[in-house]
Amino acid sequence: MKRREYLKTIVLGSVLPMAFSSYGLSPYIEELWDTKKKVKFKSQWDKFQDMKWAGPEYWGNRLQDWELRDGAVECVVSGKNRNLHLLTVMHQNGDSALDLEVTIAVKHFNLDSYKKGCVGMLLGSKGKFDDYRSAAVFGKGLEVGLSTKGQLQVGEQEIKTPFSEIPKTFKLQIKTKPLKSGGQSLIVRILNPENNKELFESPKLEVKNEDLAGTFALLSNIDLGWKVEDKPTCSFSDWVIEGNALQENETQLFGPVCFAQYTLNRGKLKLMAQCSPFESLSGHSVGLEIFKDGAWQTISKGELVNDGRNKLFEVENWREISDVPYRVCVELPQSDGVKRYYYEGTIKAEPKDKEDLNIAVLNCNMHYGFPDQDIVDNLNKLSYDVCVFLGDQFYEGTGGYGVQYQGEYDKRCLDFLRKWMMFGWSYREVFRHHPCSIITDDHDVFHGNLWGCGGTHADVSLGYGSKAQDSGGYKMDADWVNMAQFTQTGHLPDPYDATPVKQGINVYYTQWDYAGVSFAILEDRKFKSAPKTVLPEEADVFNGFIRNTEFDIKKHRDIDAELLGERQETFLKNWVDDWSNDTQMKILLSQTNFATIATLPKGSTSDDVVPKLYVPEKGEYVEGDDFTKDMDSNGWPQKKRDESLEIIRKGFTFHIAGDQHLGTFVQYGVEEHGDSGFAFTGPALNNIWPRRFWPPVNAANHSVENPAYTGDYEDGFGNKISVHAVTNPYNHHKEPAILYNRSTGFGMVSVNKKKRTITSSCYQRFKDINETDAQYPGWPITVTQEDQLFKKAKYKLPKVTISSDVLPVIRVVDEQGDLVYSLPLAEKIFLPKVYKEGNYTMQFLVDNELKKEIKAKSSAGNVEAISIWI
Question: At what angle do helices 478-489 and 409-431 cross, to 10 degrees?
Answer without folding.
Answer: 10
